[in-house]
Amino acid sequence: GEGLPRPAETRVIVVANQKGGVGKTTTTVNLAASLALHGCRVLVVDLDPQGNASTALGVDHHAEVPSIYEVLVEGKPLADVVQPVVEVEGLFCVPATIDLAGAEIELVSLVARESRLQRAIEAYEQPLDYVLIDCPPSLGLLTVNALVAGREVLIPIQCEYYALEGLGQLLRNVELVRAHLNPQLHVSTILLTMYDARTRLAAQVAEEVRSHFSKEVLRTAIPRSVRISEAPSYGQTVLTYDPGSSGALSYLEAARELGLRSVPEAETGAADRQDY
Ligand code: ADP
Ligand code: MG
């Protein structure tokens, strides 16, 4: 791939939306692979007990594998659980195992329960250009850990009827974390996913999202594509599964836009607009 400028500091990006099935995991792994193909060093943190990002990256995550659970609950260093993604140079993954399902409860009684991921990432010494965190479909302590660890939030929005429902809740949570725990946090990026150019509805949803979040929405929308949905069952991203497909090209282009954007300041972020 073409080179992208490397960011001056590691950009930690939280991929969040408390709705399930909107394309968080798909976006995390495919953007991460795209950024790596553009020449960057990228770490994916799988923060969903389902472990879908680990599966999609072909990374071992059966119950005995050291994972993000040990990092969050036992304080194990991130370096001890990071695995390389064999298919893509410069791409790494911290897997999630089923243990993580219990972490939401176990974290409650631990000290610094909201900032354990942030501390682990800060202590990680390998150079990284990007960290992408794949969140579970909830706004519990795991997602809060992600929001404390990151500076940017990327929200994937599925171009369908209920697309904007629940967005206000997410934006308010981002605002709460910004106010109390992480002053630099802001919604930097919105990505339209599963865009079906043949339907009027998709176009209408896209237009509505763009009118409310003109600065944050990437120009590139990710099309609905069978190749994108097939890739995880081969333990691959669409970038290696079918590099010439429209899905692969659109993620490469979205990654390019993301990489070329300067990091905006927190003050005027989308979190200030709570009309949903
Ligand atoms: P989430 O992580 O938000 O729950 P996923 O990324 O797992 O969402 O996506 C939900 C489902 O939609 C998955 O089966 C995935 O393969 C499929 N999917 C995601 N993006 C696309 C796309 N652009 N085209 C076709 N299918 C997609
Ligand atoms: Mg997911």
Secondary structure layout plus pairing:
Blueprint: E1 11-15, H1 24-37, E2 42-46, H2 52-56, H3 68-74, E3 83-84, E4 91-94, H4 100-106, H5 116-123, E5 130-134, H6 141-149, E6 152-158, H7 167-180, E7 186-193, H8 200-212, H9 226-230, H10 238-241, H11 246-260
The structure holds adenosine-5'-diphosphate and magnesium ion (MG).
| Total separate domains | 1
Helix-and-strand structural type: alpha/beta
| Element-by-element helix/strand order | EHEHHEEHHEHEHEHHHH
Q: Which geometry do the CA atoms define?
A: globular
Instruction: List the uncertain runs.
Output: 264-269, 271-276
Please tell me how large the radius of gyration is.
17 Å
Share of helix, binned: 25-40%
Supply the CATH class: Alpha Beta
Strand content: 5-15%
**Molecules bound to protein:** adenosine-5'-diphosphate, magnesium ion
Quick check: average pLDDT?
93
> Can you tell me the CATH architecture?
3-Layer(aba) Sandwich
How many helices? 11
The name of the CATH topology is: Rossmann fold
- Record the strand order, biggest sheet: 3-4-2-5-1-6-7
State the separation between the terminal residues, measured CA to CA.
Answer: 38 Å
